[in-house]
Design goal:
The chain has about 300 residues and is an alpha/beta fold. The protein is built from nine helices and 14 strands. Helix 3 runs parallel beside helix 4. The structure holds NADP nicotinamide-adenine-dinucleotide phosphate.
Length: about 300
């Protein structure tokens, strides 16, 4: 068992990381660093600085903070020779990430930029099914209610918090995992609430060298049923990845049963253990690159102010 510490005890740490580590036979939660949050029965520090100083015996650090503050802590941990796992999005800018990759390499430690949606039950099956088929179009619809999933989280509306790209980047992590070729963004429109620094909705279209039409719509204003679907039309019929990648429906038959069990975070920790065993890093920045492109290329439109 390797000892691991969590930094940023908030929503995702409590919902997913703590239970996934508790169920893992590769890791043991040895400490936390958070200004306010703690985990019962686990040694708690107020900052990563203090933790690194007091616990040189903890080799692994899992960063669960918002993206704007992730780089500073990642650097501290890597400089202290610890292996680091990053929540998605891995940081606030691509340049930060290149810097961390170089530092991890220089230190000879593992850096793992996680994409939890890629671990959804049906994503691997979708990638395998698409192999060798002619893809005609891809339509991503990722619509959810920000009040339900991010209650009161102000950081998502601040620069670097990504706004609707916080969930949208999950869709892009699935697309880049299943798609057989590299795509690039060719147009985007971003809707910014008049009183906020990040978008509440976005539509994107991509250029595929294979000729398929590839588009995505992200929206944070959807009440009622939530939609996280990727519909792919091929020469052998459609494939629809539903429920954020939990379920794959092939052909026109439609819904064919419940989504598989959610194992995203246990799979991420198993992958981290595998990387540590092999002495490797895994940092795929392609989902983040598409988001950065949307912020540089996208047309900005002002929309109604947003208040909780
Ligand atoms: P959160 O609860 O708002 O933040 C996590 C914790 O980070 C906070 O409780 C806070 O703990 C600490 N923190 C440190 N600096 C902060 C700052 N400047 N502003 C706010 N909090 C700060 O967020 P979260 O939902 O867990 O999301 C964290 C990361 O996980 C994000 O990158 C997000 O995209 C990703 N994620 C979230 C979900 C989800 O369902 N929410 C799902 C998958 C991935 P202290 O006050 O104790 O320091």
């Amino acid at each position: 068992m390797r000892q691991i510490a969590i930094v940023g005890v908030g929503k995702i740490a409590r919902d997913q990381h703590v239970p996934a580590i508790a169920g893992s036979n590769a890791f043991e939660l040895a400490a936390t660093a958070s200004r306010h949050g703690t985990v019962e029965g686990v040694e708690a520090f107020h900052s990563l600085d203090e933790l690194l100083e007091a616990r040189p015996d903890i080799p692994c650090i899992s960063l669960c903070t918002p993206p704007q503050v992730r780089y500073g802590d990642a650097r501290l941990a890597l400089e202290a020779g610890r292996h680091v796992m990053l929540e998605k999005p891995p940081g606030a800018t691509l340049s930060e990430m290149h810097d961390l990759v170089a530092l991890a390499n220089a230190q000879g430690v593992t850096l793992f930029a996680t994409w939890h949606s890629r671990e959804a039950a049906a994503v691997d099956a979708a990638r395998d099914w698409l192999r060798g088929k002619t893809i005609r179009s891809v339509e991503i619809v990722w619509k959810e209610d920000v009040r339900r999933w991010h209650p009161g989280q102000e950081w998502i509306w601040e620069p670097g918090g990504l706004g609707v790209f916080d969930p949208g980047i999950n869709a892009l992590s699935v697309l880049t995992a299943v798609y057989p070729r590299a795509l690039h963004l060719q147009a985007a429109e971003l809707e910014f609430p008049a009183n906020r620094g990040t978008p509440i909705a976005a539509s994107l279209s991509f250029r595929d060298p294979g000729g398929a039409e590839v588009s995505a719509v992200f929206d944070w204003r959807q009440e009622g049923p939530q939609t996280w679907d990727v519909r792919i039309e091929t020469d052998e019929g459609p494939a629809v990845l539903m429920d954020g990648g939990a379920k794959l429906v092939l052909g026109e038959a439609g819904d064919d049963g419940p989504a598989a069990l959610d194992e995203e975070y246990p799979r991420l920790y198993a992958r981290f253990a595998e990387l540590l065993d092999k002495g490797e890093s895994d940092v795929d920045l392609s989902p983040m690159r598409h988001v950065a492109d949307a912020f540089t290329l996208g047309r900005r439109v002002e929309t109604a102010p947003f208040d909780w």
